[in-house]
Specification:
The chain is an alpha+beta fold. 31% of the residues lie in helices and 13% in strands. It has seven helices and five strands. It has helices spanning 56-60, 81-84, 117-141, 163-170, 187-192, 214-229, 236-247, and strands spanning 16-25, 39-41, 69-72, 88-97, 157-161. A five-stranded antiparallel sheet has the order 2-3-4-1-5. The longest helix is centred in the middle third of the chain and has 25 residues, at 117-141.
Length: 248
């Protein structure tokens, strides 16, 4: 978390969520007719995604049509996939949600309480099936074959990552770093506080938290950091130098 001038409050971590990884036996085109483009599946009935339930029990009780998600077929983007892994297909399904839904099952150290472990595992099974049901509906609407299994139990592989998984392996649960609310882009915040410098002499920060989230934000954060390390007050001077070198 960055600390910033008193004119604006400190920034919190951004959104987190759940990722479901699915593996199938069969060709993504010949057997499943899966779309190669990514799918955004929005909730029906104008469900407010900012009002997610605050417990695993209430999350698991949600209707599939109230869950928005992102569905992609990673193997479709790999030109060497079919020759390397013939007859295999992978899918990745993401659902955004706040961390608060997992707070009631954690102990003081941030680990799942022993008396809540069964509830946590049951939630993953229940919500995983909900995610698969919803994404399967979207894939069928996009032209996929009904050969897609109806149940996760009928897939070759299914593994879920929750905010607790990301926290365990990455040391942070947020997908896109710092929160991308209005406060993030306040001029005093964005131009004065989110900078590469830190309190440790010789150490500079890079990546998305220096600018904004996502791949583009990470690239820009690296560009700004490089300019600072090279002593350029205006990072865009580097771009001019690159153009000059190319011209020569």
């Amino acid at each position: 978390m960055y600390l910033k001038p008193s004119a604006t409050p400190a920034l919190d971590n951004g959104i987190t969520g759940i990722v479901l990884f699915v593996g199938l036996s069969g060709d993504l085109d010949d057997d499943f007719h899966l779309p190669h483009q990514q799918l955004w599946v929005f909730p029906d009935n104008n469900f407010d995604t900012g009002s997610f339930p605050d417990s695993l029990e209430r999350l698991a009780a949600m209707k599939s049509e109230d869950v928005g998600m992102f569905v992609t077929v990673p193997c479709a983007k790999d030109g060497a996939w079919k020759s390397t892994y013939p007859g295999k297909t992978t899918l990745e399904i993401l659902v955004e949600m706040p961390w608060k839904a997992f707070g009631d099952i954690l102990d003081e150290s941030g680990q799942v309480r022993k008396d809540k472990m069964d509830e946590y595992e049951q939630f993953k099974r229940t919500f995983g099936q909900l995610m698969w049901t919803r994404s399967r509906q979207a894939l069928l609407a996009a032209g996929a074959s009904t050969n897609l299994p109806k149940s996760l139990d009928d897939t070759d592989f299914a593994e879920m990552g929750t905010p607790l998984t990301f926290e365990h392996y990455l040391g942070r649960s947020a997908w896109l770093g710092l929160d991308h609310g209005v406060e993030r882009f306040h001029p005093r915040q964005f131009y004065l506080t989110l900078r590469p410098e830190c309190k440790i002499n010789g150490l500079f920060l890079s990546g998305q938290d220096v600018s904004f989230g996502g791949v583009e934000g990470a690239l820009l954060g690296g560009y700004i950091c490089a300019a600072k390390v090279m002593g350029e007050k205006n990072p865009f001077v580097l771009l001019q130098k690159v153009n000059v070198n190319r011209a020569q």
